[in-house]
């Protein structure tokens, strides 16, 4: 019992001591609590201040970011405007007419206008030449013919084409008096074949090789009847023209030989129809038609031809 009492007292003593100690200790605990509360308040205020500072810093950083973004945008726009302003300086160099000075540009435009006008005029005149008879051709036919003939002549008419459907070969032979007084007859010279060989493979054949003999023969046929008699003055003119051509061609071929003289000439033509295409079903004769002219004396024509040839040679020298 005593032991328990003593323990009890002891416990009580300790409790009392604690109570005694706690009595005067309460003020210190209160002070500590107040101090802790004050510290907590101060910490809260500090935290609030820190949060405010952070928000202010964030606002400042946002403002600075916005300002920087705006500055960047303005700088980009300024750079774009500057680039647009500098674009003509970095463009590719001009070429062609645009690269010329204004004075030469005016000259080029004038030259192009003149060429275009000349081309249009030429096309118009050729069109009037091949077109059917109309008011313009009746009033200005002479001017059209002067421009077209002989370089731009067409052998067909617009809306009524008449292309050549025959091959015509013109041949020539001569009677030659030799140096010993004999008379001999040469063989046939195929003048059309000679012109054909001169034209073939030649990118720029002469007008003489292409048209002289052909036009002369067409002229003769159109101005003579079926008995080879001339019709009017044009018939006689065409005959004289053919005689002069004969003398020139025979002289070129040296038909007379050394000491020989061409006394007479004779023409003949061989006409063959051009075969139609297989799909047409048209039937034409393939047998040639031969037309042989009478003998012509060429003494006067030979003299005129030799004089003309001598004049050309003298002019060339």
Question: Can you describe this structure?
Answer:
There is one protein chain. The N and C termini lie far apart (177 Å). Helices cover 62% and strands 11% of the residues. The protein is of the alpha+beta class and 317 residues long. Helix 4 runs antiparallel to helix 5 (207-222), helix 5 packs antiparallel against helix 6 and helix 6 packs across helix 7 (299-316). It has helices at residues 2-90, 102-130, 135-148, 191-199, 207-222, 232-252, 299-316, and strands at 166-177, 183-185, 189-190, 261-273, 289-292, 296-297. Strands 1, 2, 3, 4, 5 and 6 form a six-stranded antiparallel beta sheet that branches. The longest helix is centred in the first third of the chain and has 89 residues, at 2-90.
Secondary structure: elements and pairs:
Blueprint: H1 2-90, H2 102-130, H3 135-148, E1 166-177, E2 183-185, E3 189-190, H4 191-199, H5 207-222, H6 232-252, E4 261-273, E5 289-292, E6 296-297, H7 299-316
Antiparallel strand pairs: 1-2, 1-3, 1-4, 4-5, 4-6
Q: What is the string of SSEs from the N terminus onward? A: HHHEEEHHHEEEH
Rg of Cα set: 60 Å
Low-confidence stretches: 1-33, 56-67
Largest sheet: 6 strands, antiparallel
Which tags fit this structure?
317 residues, alpha+beta, 6 strands, elongated, 62% helix, single chain
In short:
With 317 residues, the chain is of the alpha+beta class.
């Amino acid at each position: 019992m005593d032991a328990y009492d003593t323990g009890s007292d002891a416990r009580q003593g300790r409790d009392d001591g604690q109570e005694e100690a706690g009595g005067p200790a309460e003020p210190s605990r209160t002070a500590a609590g107040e101090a802790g509360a004050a510290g907590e308040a101060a910490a809260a205020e500090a935290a609030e201040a820190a949060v405010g500072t952070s928000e202010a810093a964030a606002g400042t950083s946002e403002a600075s970011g916005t300002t920087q973004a705006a500055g960047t945008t303005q700088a980009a726009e300024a750079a774009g405007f500057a680039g647009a302003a500098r674009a003509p300086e970095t463009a590719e160099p001009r070429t062609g007419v645009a690269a010329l000075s204004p004075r030469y540009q005016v000259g080029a435009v004038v030259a192009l206008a003149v060429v275009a006008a000349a081309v249009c005029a030429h096309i118009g005149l050729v069109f009037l030449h091949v077109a059917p008879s109309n008011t313009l051709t009746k009033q200005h036919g002479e001017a059209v013919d002067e421009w077209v003939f002989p370089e731009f002549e067409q052998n067909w008419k617009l809306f009524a084409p008449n292309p050549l459907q025959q091959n015509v070969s013109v041949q020539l032979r001569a009677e030659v008096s030799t140096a010993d007084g004999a008379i001999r007859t040469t063989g046939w010279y195929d003048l059309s074949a000679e012109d054909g060989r001169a034209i073939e493979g030649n990118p720029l054949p002469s007008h003489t090789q292409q048209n002289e003999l052909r036009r002369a023969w067409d002229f003769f046929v159109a101005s003579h009847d079926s008995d080879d008699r001339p019709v009017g003055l044009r018939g006689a003119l065409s005959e004289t023209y053919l005689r002069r051509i004969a003398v020139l061609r025979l002289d070129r071929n040296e038909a007379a030989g050394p000491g020989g003289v061409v006394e007479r000439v004779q023409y003949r033509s061989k006409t063959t129809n051009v075969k139609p295409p297989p799909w047409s079903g048209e039937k034409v004769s393939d047998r040639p038609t031969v037309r042989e002219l009478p003998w012509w004396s060429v003494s006067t024509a030979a003299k005129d031809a030799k004089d003309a040839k001598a004049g050309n040679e003298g002019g060339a020298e």
